[in-house]
Amino acid sequence: MRQRPAHPLDDHESPSRTFARAWAQRLHEVSFVPRRLGRTIPLLQDLTALLAAALTGDEPDPAAGHHAGTALVEAQLWSPAALRASVEHIHTRLRSDLGITHPDAADRLGPLLGAFTEAFAEGVRAVALTETDDLRRHERATAQRAVLQAEQERQHALLHDQVSGLPNRHALTEHLTTLAAKSDRLAVCVLNLVRFAEISDALGTDPADALLREVGLRMRDLAVTHGLFAAHLGGDEFVLVQAGTRGPDDAVKLFDLVREALAYPWGPAAHPVQLDAKGGLLERAATGAVAGELLRTAKMALTWAKSDPVGSYAMFEQHRHDADRRRHTLSRDLPGAVRNGALRLAYQPIVSLTDRRVVAVEALARWRHPDHGEVAPAEFIPLAERIGLLNRLIGAQLRAAGRHALKWQRTGRPVRLNLNVSTAQLTDPSLPAIVGEALDETGFPPDLLTFEVTEESITTPQASTLAALAALGASFAVDDFGTGYSNFARLHEVSRTAVTSLKVDRSLLASSDVLLTTLVTLAHGLRLHAVAEGVETEDQAAHVRKLGYDHAQGILFGAPAPPDEVAALL
Question: pLDDT category, 132, cuts 50, 70, 90?
Answer without folding.
Answer: low
